[in-house]
Amino acid sequence: MSYGDSLVHFIYYSSLSQPELVTPAGEGRSRWYGVSLWPTAFFSGRRQEQITSPDSFYAAYQAEFLGARSRTTVLAMALDSATTLIDSQRVSIGVRVHPTDTVANRLTGVNLVGIVFEDSVPYYSPLRGETVYASVAVRQVIGDTWGVPIRLSFGADLDTVLTTPTGSWRFDKVGVAAFVQDTTTKEVLQAVMKRRIME
Questions:
Q1: How far apart, in whole angstroms, are the C-alpha atoms of residue 178 and residue 131?
Q2: 3-state secondary structure of 162
Q3: How many CB atoms lie within 10 A of CB 198?
Q4: What is the distance between the terminal CA atoms of the chain, rounded to a whole angstrom?
Q5: Counting runs of H as helices and runs of E as strands, what totals does the chain give?
Q6: How far does Cα 72 stand from its chain's mean position?
Q7: CA–CA separation, 75 vs 104, rounded Å?
């Protein structure tokens, strides 16, 4: 999900590839998106059909990144460093959504989704016969699978804190992301990310 200077990405793993990395919410979102085979990439909630093999990843990703960076959005987002925290009890994501256009007043069916991820997760690969590392693996979706319904109004910032109980994660590897998504079109309107909370 990329707008201007913002680039947010994360990965849901399937039960067919790395079952130890699967989350119920991730499985739910995969079904919602219509993912049938891996790897499948989505940009701004739209399936990127041309990515069919590892050799084609870079060119397709680069084209999408450049296209996304050229678009404007009706929202700006930021994480609040004072309320984006992790401790033994919970992960908190402090989010500010700032509507930048009156178009925001007409948005309906919009959800705010919080993501907790580990930026490097070890798992054993039978294919390679060794421990390998999964990148940016989603561990929890806050707001169940779909997020929290919100209403936006131009001239009024939405400030909120999304929380979830802490799992058996390595705290120094945990990062968070948040995004606003149209649940009808699946379009992501804006996103923000912190690679590691404890930095």
A1: 30
A2: strand
A3: 12
A4: 23
A5: 2, 13
A6: 19
A7: 8
C-alpha to C-alpha distance for 96 and 7, rounded to whole angstroms: 17
For strand 85-86 and strand 75-79, is the pairing parallel, antiparallel, or unpaired?
unpaired
Q: Quick one: tokens of 106? A: 């007409």
Can you tell me the distance from the alpha carbon of 141 to that of 193, in angstroms, rounded to the nearest whole number?
14
Contacts of 48 (CB under 8 A, 6+ apart): 40, 41, 42, 60, 64
- Full pLDDT tens readout for the chain, 199 residues: 334 445 676 666 665 556 667 777 777 777 777 766 656 666 666 655 555 555 666 676 777 777 777 777 889 999 999 999 999 999 999 999 999 999 999 999 999 999 999 888 777 777 778 887 777 888 888 877 788 999 999 999 999 999 999 988 889 999 999 999 888 888 888 889 998 998 7
Q: Within the chain, where are the H helices?
A: 24-33, 57-69
Nearest alpha carbon to residue 33 among 42, 24, 25: 42
Q: Tokens in use for 171? A: 């705290």
CA distances from 197 to 48, 106, 137, 152, 194 (A): 30, 34, 15, 27, 6
